[in-house]
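User: Predict the structure for this protein chain, please.
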Amino acid sequence: MKIERQFTEAGKGAYVDLDFVTTVSEIRNPDGTIVFRLDDVEVPRTWSQVASDVIAQKYFRKAGVPSKLEKVKEADVPEFLWRSQAAKGAVMGGETSSKQVFDRLAGAWAYWGWKGGYFTGEEDALAYYDEMRHMLATQRAAPNSPQWFNTGLHWAYGIDGPAQGHHYVDYATGKLTRSKSSYEHPQPHACFIQSVSDDLVNDGGIMDLWVREARLFKYGSGTGTNFSSLRGAGENLSGGGKSSGLMGFLKIGDRAAGAIKSGGTTRRAAKMVIVDADHPDIEDFINWKVIEEQKVASIVAGSKMHEEKLNGLFAAIKSWDGAICDAYDPRKNTVLKEAVKAAKKVAIPETYVKRVLDYARQGHTSIEFPTYDTDWDSEAYSSVSGQNSNNSIRVTNAFLKAVEKDADWNLIDRVNGQPVKTIKARDLWAQVGHAAWACADPGIQYHDTVNDWHTCPEDGAIRGSNPCSEYMFLDDTACNLASMNLLTFLKDGLFQTEDYMHASRLWTITLEVSVMMAQFPSKEIAQRSYDFRTLGLGYANIGGLLMNMGYGYDSDEGRALCGALTAIMTGTAYATSAEMASELGAFPGYKKNAKHMLRVMRNHRKAAGGSLDGYENLAVKPVPLDHDNCPDNRLIEVAMATWDKALKLGEKHGYRNAQSTVIAPTGTIGLVMDCDTTGIEPDFALVKFKKLAGGGYFKIINRSVPAALENLGYGLAQIEEIISYAVGHGSIGNSPAINHTSLAGHGFGVNELAKVDAALESAFDIRFVFNQWTLGEEFCTQVLGIPVEKLSDPSFDLLRSLGYSKADIDAANNHVCGTMTLEGAPHLKAEHYHIFDCANPCGKTGTRFLNVDSHITMMAAAQSFISGAISKTINMPNDATIEDCQKAYELSWSLGVKANALYRDGSKLSQPLAASLVEDDEEAQEIFESGSQQQKATVLAEKVVEKIIVKELIKSHREKMPQRRKGYTQKAIVGGHKVYLRTGEYEDGNLGEIFIDMHKEGAGFRAMMNNFAIAVSVGLQYGVPLEEFVDAFTFTKFEPAGMVQGNDSIKNATSILDYVFRELAVSYLDRTDLAHVKPEGASFDDLGKGVEEGVSNVSELSDTAASKSLEVLKQISSTGYLRKRLPQDLVVLQGDMADANASLLGAEIDIQTLEPNLTVDVAAVGAAPTVSIPKGSVSMDARTKAKMQGYEGEACGECGNYTLVRNGTCMKCNTCGGTSGCS
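Assistant: Here is the predicted structure, written as C-alpha cells:
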C-alpha cells in the first residue's frame, strides 16, 4: 500500500519540528509517600505533567532495556527496520525517554507490516514509521494500553521470556502455532470475549475460564463472557443430582478476578459478566449486587452495634457497687440486666453476651470488636462478592415488547429448552430498574439490535462483549483499540478533515498489522481473531471539541457534528479495509458472510445519506446523519462520499476486517493524549487541577472555554472577567473578609503580603498559600505564634487558627480562587450556559448539568456509524427515580443504541452524595448569633450529637471519675462577664469533666451553660475525644464575646464556648495554635536548649528515677493547671545518653497521658529518642474534598488518591492513570 506523508517530510525524521524537554515524574499517595519517581524523563514540551507521569509510570519499560544495542541483520527487511538486541557489555535498565516508546511501538508495527506485505516499498514503510511516531508525539492518537505495555519490546531491545501458553496463526502459512516466547509476538489486544461451556473442569469449561481470564488480566487486558449456557439452580445433572446454579460459579470467578492485577502493580481486573434475560437464575443475577451492598451495610452497622453493646455489658459490670460475685449476675445487677436486654433487642447473639460475661469474670474490662466502614477497598467490601466485574443482561425485542404489553415472560431450562418458570415481563423489568437505581448494575445489552448490525451471522450470533461494552462480536475473539484525539484536528476554528481521514487510514492499517503480529491467550481466540480480524478504531475528546467550537453537548449541532465525524472515521476505516483486501485478500470468514456484511454497509451508507426509511432488515431504525443541523456542510459531503467509496470498494474486493470501529472509554490513553474529555463523554468539570512536576497542582480553566467564548463573540476583556469568575482573580487585595487590611491586623507585614500575592496566582485554595513555605517558618512561629510541629502537619489550617470563620474563607476563596463554575459569571448570557454544561454540576454553587436524554441521544447520533458499540455512562442525579432508570433504558432501545449503563449519583454505598458535601453551617451560625436561648440550646445539642455519631469512637462505655480528683479553676472575664471554669481529671491526668458558672447572668443562660457542661462531661467520660469538642465549639459566635481578662493565654473570644474550649485545648491538648499568648515553661516533651548554651540539659540519673519522678509529679499535680508544662525548676529526665550503648534510650513520654513508656530499640541504639507530637487538627475528609473538585469520591486502587472520574462504564484516576476499563 502507498503511504503519503501528511505530518512529516521525507528525510527529516519524525521529531524535527518538535521540542523535547526533561521533567521529573513523581506520583504520591495522599499521605505524601512516593508511589513512583523517575528523574530526567524526556517528553515533548507540549505534554502536561499528568501525561508525562502516565507514560513514565505506566508505559515506560522498567527493566531489561540495554544501555547499548546492536542490530540483528534480517534478509528482505530494510535496515532501518532491523530489530535490536543487547550489545556486549550492556547494562540493563529502563526506558527514560518517550522517544524510546514511540520508536519501539511504530518500529514494531512497521517491521511486522513490512513482513506481512502491507507496504508497496521502503519509502512507504519509512513514511508510515515517521507518521506514526509523529502522531504519538503530538497526541493525535494512541493505541490501547496493552500495546504500550508489550509491543516492540522484543523488536527494540531483544527482551524475551518463557512462553505463557499463548497461540498465534502464522501470517505466512496460516497455521495455528503455539508461542515459544513471551514477547516476539506481543499481546496488543485489550478486549476479549470468551466462551464458557456448561462443563466444570474440561477445556472450555467453567474452571478453565478462570485460568484464561487470569492470563488476560496479567497482561493488562479485559474480558467478557456470556454465562447463559450454564445451568440454573435445580436443573438436572448427568449424574442424577441437581445443579447448584449459576451464581455460585460467578462468585468464584469474581473472587479470582479480584486477586489479580496486571503485572502485580497496575489496574485491577476488567471483567464483564453477561446473562440472558430468559435464564432461570436471572432474578438472582439482577439483584446480586443490590444484595451484596446490603450485606456491606449490615456488616458496617452490625460491627459497630456489637462493639457498642458488648462494651455496654462491661460498663454495667464496672458500675456495680455491691458484692463482686453479684456484678456478673443479671438477676442481681439490674444495670447489667438492662444492658443484656439492650444487646438482645438488637439481635446480639446470646453466645457473645455470655462470652463477655465470662471475660469479665476473668478480669477483662473491655472487648475490642473490629468495626468496618463503607470504603470501596475496605474489609467490608472485600468480604462480599460481585465487586470485580461489570454486570449486564441481554434483552431481546420480544422481551421489551412483552414489557410494553405487560405480557408473560418465560425463563428457559438450559438442558431441555422448556420453560421452567413464567413471570410478568414488567415485574422482571422493574427489578432491573430497581437494581440499576440502587447500585448502578446491571447494564443492558440489546441483543436483536446488536445482531441486526452483525456482519458475520453465518458464524453464529453475537452473545457477549468486552468489559466496557464497546466491542461486541462472536465468542472467542479479540479486538485491539486505538483512539484519535479529535481536538488535535481543529485548527483556527476549522476541523481538518484531510488530516483526520489520513490518521484514520494509518491507524486502521496499524490495528490490522497488530492482528497479524499478535499472540492470543487460547487456540480458539487465536484462530477466530485470524479468521475475522476485528478492529477497534475510535476517538476521544468529542466533548472538548464541541465546546471549543461553541456548541453544547446537548444541542442539535453537537449531535450532527458527532454523527458526521463518526461517519467519516468508520467510512474511511472500511474503505481502507477494502483497499487492504484488494492486495492481501478479504478476511477468511468474509465469503460466506458477504451478503450480510454488504447489507450492513448499505445501511451505514443510507444513514450517512440522512435517510429516515429504506433500511434493510432492521427492527429498530437508526438515527440518520442530521444534514440540516450540521454547522459544517463539508463534513456532510465528505461523510457521504466516504461511505460511497467504502461500499464500492467492498463490493469489488471484500473487506479485510469484519469490524473496524468502536468508541472506547479511553481512560489511561485519554490522559496520555491530554484530552479534556474521554471517548464520547462530556466534560466532568470546567476547572481542572493541572499537575506540576515534583508534585502539587495549579488550577486552570478547561482550555475549551476561552475558545468557545471567543467564537460566541465575547471580547477579550469580557472573556478575562468570565474566566476570573471561574478560576479566581489570583489576588487577595480586594478580597472580602481576608485581605491586606485584615491580615495586617494579625501581624502580616509588606513582605509577607507580597509573598501571599505571589503564591495566590497558582493556588486553587487560599488555605494552601497560608503556610510555612510561603510565609517562612520564622514569621509563622515568632510573629503568629504557631508551633513548629503544627506547621508540618498537612491538616493544620492557619487561617482558622487566626480566627477566620469558614464563611470568611469561602468568600475569599470565591474571589481569589474562583467558583469553578460559569453560572452567574459577568457578561455571560444565559442562552450560552448550555454550551458549558458538564456531566455533573460544577463547583460548590453550580446547579446545571446535562440531562439523562442528552447522553443517550449523543450515543444514538454516533451508533449508526460504529461497527461495534459505545462505552458510555449515563449520569443521573441522586433524585432520579426507578422509573427514570427504566425510561432511560427504553429510550436507548428505541434509538438503536446497542448497550448502555446508568450511574445514579449516590447509588454506590462507598460513594458519598454529591449534593450533601458542602459543610456549610450558616443556619446554625445565625441561630448562635441571633436566636433565642432555647434555639441556641437545641442547635448546641444537635452539634454535639452530630460530632459524636459521625466519628468512630475508641470506646462506648463510660469511664467513671475517681471519687477524689485533681483539676483546676480558672476565673476570667469575657466581654465584661465573669466566667468560672472548673475541671476534673482522671488519675492519668486526662480531662474527665468540666463545670461552667457565670457570675450574675440570667437564670436561663446560666442554667443552659451549666447543663451544657454536664453534657460535655458525660461525652468525655464515654470516650469522646476532647479534640472533637474543641473542633466543634471553637470559633462559635454569640454574646457575650470580646476581650478576655484574667487568663494568661486567651486574650479574645467570639463566645463563652469559644473561650472555654480554647482554654481546655491549650491546657490539655497543648493546642498553642488556639492561644494568643503561648504558655511559659518547658512542655513535657521539650528537649530544652541547654546544648545550645554550652551546658547539658540532661542530668545523670537513671531511667527508673526519671520515670518515678514523673509518676509522682502526675499524681500530685493537675495537668491542666500546669498547662502540660513542667515547673521551671524541674527538667525532663531522659537518662544518660553519654554511653548509649550501655543504657536504654530513655523514657518516651506519652504526651496525651503523661505516662512514660520505657522501650528498648536495639536497632536504634545511639540515635535520638523519638518524641510523639499530637496533631493540631482533624483533616478535611478526602472524599469530600475530591467530590468538591469534581471527582467521584472513591480512592484509586493503585495510588490511593481520590482523583477517580467516571469514564464510560469504567473509572479512571487522573493522578496515576489507573483504570478499571480496557484502554
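The chain has a mean pLDDT of 84.
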